[in-house]
Design a protein that fits this description.
The chain has 470 residues and is mainly alpha-helical. The protein is 79% helix and 0% strand. Its main location: membrane.
């Protein structure tokens, strides 16, 4: 039975643009803080421990990104399911989703942590880790694997809160974790007073402690603030229907993120053929791409939650306004960033690197791909709406088409023409265009609403959140 909402933020009525901005802004700030800290962390490691330590940390990055993809993919499913139940006013369903999500979390944590610890050295060898850094890389990776438990739980707590419309509190815990990490990093790396010098392991230990503190406080906050609410885990449940929904929504999101990482790795192979300066320029450009995408990703997450809540409430008519307002909110932000990248590429690149050859090749990238950033205005919003309807398989397929049928084949072909490395950059822009076109075509086809609207037309009490596969 449906019951009155008495907690969280209801996005099923009121101003859609205000809801989008209120939801997206804390996410954007949190992402910027996390990115800023990752840069500071590398600076500490480089200055205090040297090149070998930086290399040892870098070699674990693909594994760390896979852990992030798994955590964010599974918890995206939780956020969408909680949002839809919240929109329907179904507290019982929210509790079921939360309980099942914690069960999935515990299984994932045990399996990933145990396998990671057992096969850490094997993974490093597969990544062709140089022998001279194998020792410190092994210790760092094993500690990173231990941090997965806190990482997953932090994502899960944040996803549940975002599902009920709260992005401010997750931001507060990101701020706390960032500050604690920044303070502990140098102390544990070089030692201070009774604290021994732990070297590179100190950096990993600082992350574990900072995330652990944030998780404990986050869990206590939820327990106290919502002690009468349904977002506290009350017992472990393994209900087939909900577990299947988590898998159906979460697994494609995980695969999609892994595809992005794989695509970056393959494109790097083509870029490597144009020399070290080109590789360095592409590495810097990748960081710029990530920063530029942050505002659009924040709006995407807001669009996803608003979509899920309104579908839960049976208000599918509001979804067209989510697309329109999401695009309008993105336009001034992304267009301004795009203009800066195209107009002042040298100044932007020199923030990251001083080498003239690297900057020169990076300028070519930004002057071409900078225009491609304009596609972020649209496809992140439409993808967010599609994800909010639970159709993450569709957005995964869109990413697969963009990567495997456009970006990689075109980069391979165009890089061997007179365009040279500019052919790679052109392939990236064209892949953005194809992603946008495919996402909009699927959105306007209305197929992403199939199976969802049918359920809400019936307003079934027992299974208001059931979804159909794509």
């Amino acid at each position: 039975m449906k019951s009155k909402r008495q907690f969280g933020k209801d996005f099923t009525s009121g101003s859609i643009p205000r809801h989008l901005v209120q939801f997206a802004l804390p996410i954007l700030i949190g992402n910027l803080l996390a990115t800023g800290y990752s840069v500071i962390n590398i600076i500490w490691i480089g200055r205090l421990l040297g090149t070998e330590a930086v290399a040892a940390a870098a070699v674990s990055l693909p594994i760390f990104l896979a852990m992030v993809a798994l955590s964010s993919g599974a918890t995206l499913a939780t956020s969408i399911l909680v949002s839809r139940a919240y929109g329907a006013g179904d507290h019982k369903k929210i509790q079921q989703v939360v309980n099942n999500s914690w069960s999935v979390a515990l299984i994932a944590i045990v399996l990933v942590t145990a396998s990671g610890l057992l096969f850490a050295d094997t993974l490093l060898r597969l990544l062709s880790t140089p022998a001279e850094i194998m020792g410190i890389a092994s210790g760092y990776l094993k500690l990173t694997m231990l941090s997965f438990a806190f990482m997953y739980m932090s994502y899960l707590i944040a996803s549940v809160l975002r599902g009920i419309g709260d992005t401010t509190i997750p931001l507060m815990f990101i701020v706390l974790s960032t500050v604690v990490n920044a303070v502990l990093d140098p102390l544990l790396i070089i030692g201070f007073g009774p604290i021994p010098s732990l070297g590179l392991n100190g950096a990993a230990g600082a992350s574990i402690l900072a995330t652990g503190i944030s998780v404990v406080l986050g869990f206590l906050y939820v327990r106290y603030k919502y002690r009468e609410g349904p977002i506290n885990p009350t017992r472990l449940l393994f209900e087939r229907a909900i577990i299947m929904d988590i898998m159906r929504i979460g697994l494609p999101s995980f695969v999609q993120q892994m595809l992005v990482s794989l695509g970056y790795a393959v494109i790097t192979i083509f870029v490597n053929g144009f020399g070290a300066a080109a590789t360095a320029a592409f590495g810097v450009a990748g960081r710029i791409d990530s920063i530029v995408a942050m505002p659009a990703i924040a709006v995407m997450m807001a669009a996803s939650t608003l979509t899920a809540q309104n579908l839960g409430a049976g208000k599918a008519d509001r979804l067209k306004h989510i697309l329109g307002w999401g695009i309008l909110i993105n336009i001034p932000v992304i267009a301004a960033i795009s203009l800066l990248c195209v107009t002042f590429p040298e100044a932007i690149l020199q923030v990251f690197v001083k080498d003239e050859d690297v900057v020169s090749k990076g300028v070519e990238y930004l002057r071409l791909v900078g225009f491609g950033y304009l596609f972020f205005i649209v496809f992140y919003v439409s993808n967010g709406i599609i994800n909010g309807a639970g159709k993450t398989i569709s957005t995964m397929i869109i990413s697969l088409i963009s990567l495997c049928l456009v970006r990689i084949p075109l980069a391979a072909w165009l890089s061997n023409t007179e365009l040279g490395i500019r052919g790679v950059w052109l392939a990236i822009v064209l892949s953005f265009a194809v992603t946008t076109a495919a996402s909009l075509l699927y959105y306007f086809s209305g197929k992403w609403l199939k199976g969802v609207t049918a359920v809400h037309d019936k307003q079934g009490e027992e299974h208001p959140l059931s979804t159909t596969s794509d």
